[in-house]
Amino acid sequence: MSTQTHSFQAEVAQLLQLVTHSLYSNPDIFLRELISNASDACDKLRFEALNDSALFENTPDLQVKVSFDAQARTLTIADNGIGLTKQEAMDNLGTIAKSGTREFMAKLSGDQKNDAQLIGQFGVGFYSGFIVADQITVESRRAGTTVEAGVRWTSAGTGSFEVQDIARPERGTSVILHMKEDALEYLNAWKLKDIINKYSDHISLPILMPQEEWKEGENDQPGQMVATGEWETVNKATALWTRAKKDVTQEQYDEFYKQISYDHEAPLATTHNRVEGSTEYTQLLFLPAKAPHDLYNRDKAAGVKLYVKRVFIMDDAEALLPVYLRFVKGVVDSADLPLNVSREILQESRAVKAIREGNTRRVLSMIEDLAANEPEKFKTFYAEFGAVLKEGLGEDTANRERIAKLLRFASSTTDTVSVALADYKARMKEGQEAIYYITAETQAAAKNSPQLEIFRKKGLEVLLMSDRVDEWALSFLHEFEGTPLQSVAKGQVDLGKLQDEEEKKAAEEAETQFKPVLDKLKEALKDKAADVRATTRLVDSPACLVVQDGGMSMQLARMLKAAGQPAPSVKPILEVNASHPLVKKIEAAEGSFDDLAHILFDQALLAEGGLPEDPAAYVRRVNALLA
Question: What span, in angstroms and rounded, lies between the C-alpha atoms of 155 and 135?
């Protein structure tokens, strides 16, 4: 048996330093990682055997075995899953985060490739073994190969590893940890069983350990636990989601969530249900407490894990939840889908449509329950995921009203994002006929917008919206429980019964008397403004910019351009306050009229978060005015 020595990929030494000192603060995690890898290897074999049952050889029962030898100071995690060839061992164990699954997928094509999406990963988790071991030996043989095709891989976790060919009668993989001096506590059956029960109890494969029994001592020798030569199952060997809710503790749910999400915090909410009817499935879904860094990347694969009859099919089954709920983690196990289900089938299946709708209703119920009964948790949830939830207004027509009830906003009367549309409606003034809102790039910009002046004067509350998604989302929500939503920055301000006759008459007179100046302003600003008109919405400011009803706001147009998206050229309407001193000065100006008109427009643009097209020209005009 010739032995070959190979160098690790350059980053592996850095990875090992990270794993052993930073990545896992709890050393017990190593056993969870290695058992998960063993389970994944069995899942992979079960999947490949759908097309080639000979891969099971003579042992169709899949299992994981955990054993130890206190004298030799070794701990072994063995599985009879798919196994590794010599080349796979070199590739998968010598390269950082390179998984056998990725190589496995690369060999498939068409539906098979879709079927096999992300089944098991033999990556970074393997290196966690070096937390407790100063040497790791891996012995493996791939299913379907000859006895002589086995491989032994050995490394002390330094700069290199060794591989050699071995004869191995049984298929699968054995990971043998040579334990460090300070990790000998893991060579203890009680300790190992405790860790397995905590972290791996949900795994559907049986996890076996040598059975022990108490033997009394003889000739004054103390008694001890001795092996019986039999194996015993130490986990429940039933997937967590297949158990009755009454048999699962919240701690077990939390640990399961942490394992599937790689999150160190417990979830905010959990729901576990078996759905029966025309479509049968089990759902175990979680609301995280913290948003991932890539939450706003709508193209990233996201979704729940899909199982069919407890056989793992794929991660990130996005067809089972709408995109706006992409933060939800969990498992769906269907009894109605075929085992060789592909992503194309998922997109077209009537059963999948029913599962998706059921999952969506269940998640919204979880959020509603937080809002009604656990306000602090709901506040945490909304701060992390509220902006993404708003996407549902445009994507989920069937649940638009439910989503709208869950939304929260700041308003002109409160700085906290806590105002529900129902709260706003409940305190609307008598005669008020619309829910007023304004969108801006920041909450401060919204709160200080000139468009709010008449509303403040009248004591009318205005919702302040500063999430990037707000304007797009609100374009799908035209009313709430029969009350229309109206942007204060679009169209004419019509306060209806809240505007007295004197105000209406004064506005009409101002429009007539001020018409010559309005016409001159229109001419001076014809390249910038679609129209110029007198307004009743301003109290303290000389002018503001608005867009026509149904038009795209300048803020949204700027955002689209900044993101490299096509955006129409927006020509706003300039509304002027005929009674303001600056406007009266413009009215009396002769030679400086055009400069003052442009200053008026650019100041209105600055007030709503924009920048003048020609900042230097704006500064020059202001300097001339001040001189």
Answer: 6
- Placement of tokens 């709920």 in the chain: 325
- Whether the CB-CB separation of 276 and 346 falls below 8 Å is answered with no
End-to-end CA distance of the chain: 93
Map tokens 């709430």 to a residue.
480
Q: Is beta strand 64-69 parallel, antiparallel or unpaired with respect to 3-7?
A: unpaired
What's the sign of the alpha-carbon dihedral 562, 566, 567, 568? positive
Q: What is the pTM (predicted TM-score) of this model? A: 0.65
CA distance 492 to 504: 13
Residue 550 CB contacts under 8 Å (≥ 6 apart), including other chains: 490
Arithmetic mean of pLDDT over the chain: 83
Structure tokens at 511: 């429009």
CA atoms of 270 and 248, how far apart (whole Å): 12
Q: Which H or E run includes 614?
A: none
Question: Residue 214: phi, psi to the nearest 5?
Answer: -80, 130
Distance CA(523)–CA(25), nearest Å, equals 70
Distance CA 421, CA 419 (A): 7
457-467 pLDDT, tens digit per residue, is 888 899 999 88
Mean predicted confidence (pLDDT) in 194-223 = 84
Pick from 368, 394, 395, 393: nearest CA to 382: 368
Q: Kindly write down the DSSP assignment for every residue of 197-263, as one continuous string.
A: HHHSTT-SSPEEEEEEEEE--STTPPPEEEEEEEEEE-S--S-GGGS-GGG--HHHHHHHHHHHHT-
Q: pLDDT value at position 94?
A: 62
Confidence of residue 271 (pLDDT cuts 50, 70, 90): very high
If pLDDT is split at 50, 70 and 90, which confidence band does 545 have? Answer: confident
Report the C-alpha gap between 13 and 15 in whole angstroms: 5
pLDDT tens-digit map of 109-156: 444 333 333 233 334 568 778 889 999 999 999 999 999 999 999 998
Q: Considering only residues 585 and 108, tell me which one the structure prediction assigns the higher pLDDT.
A: 585
| Structure tokens, 6 | 């190979």
Alpha carbons 601 and 598: distance in angstroms, whole number: 5
Q: What is the pLDDT confidence band of residue 335, given thresholds at 50, 70 and 90? A: confident
How far is Cα 232 from Cα 206, in angstroms, rounded to an integer? 9
Q: Which two tokens stand for residue 534?
A: 């007198």
Tell me how far apart the 2 most distant CA atoms of the chain are, in Å. Answer: 120
DSSP secondary structure letters along 313-366: EEEEEGGGS-GGGTT-EEEEEESSS-TT--HHHHHH-HHHHHHHHHHHHHHHHH
State yes or no: pLDDT of 404 exceeds 80: yes
